[in-house]
Amino acid sequence: MQILPLHFQSGHLLLELANAHWVLDTGSPGSFGSNALQKLAGQAVQVPRSFMGLNATTLSQMIGAPVAGLLGTDVLNSFDIVLDVSAGLAHFTSEAVPLEGEAVTLSDVMGVPVVQAQVDGRAHAMFFDTGASVSYFQEEGLEQYPPLEPAQDFYPGIGPFETPTWRLPVQLGGTRFLLRTGRLPDLLAMTLAMAGVDGIVGNAICADHRIGYFPRRGVMVIS
102-222, which class in CATH? Predict the structure, then answer.
């Protein structure tokens, strides 16, 4: 097992690795970075310098913090990972990690994890995206929930955009969250629809809970 410093900064989960910060992003199927990684939890890791037009320089500009790169699911899905934001630590291991809590089934689309979330008693497939500081929901009726301030966000291939947001009650297993939730631009919304998902659960669920991300076993644990 390798235990690494974890920072929740500028709305992003930043992993301290190889004397640099890396965005930890389960919403990206690909990794990239300006620094060469050699090993993570004993496994050899190689990442290209760019992915989908993004590199470390442009990513740093977009999130407003200097980062060496991004770790996507092509790297992350090889491990059992426990994210403990309150302790400022991330645990990576090639072994199975026991963690007590609410177990939520994971599936995936192109390696990106999908959870079944409940909104007003209805089940919706949503991506679990630790790179998303804002959650998203593409169903009708968001306007009925308490409004929040507009959010600035960005996505590779789309660039920066602004969305109104609302406080949406979302339940994962038996755990209830109130998530700042917006609407995606039309092109991204079409991408979600083609993947058969209705939204994105962002990294806010990590703020007050330990999250066990165990993609090899198809489960997430909320502790």
Answer: mainly beta
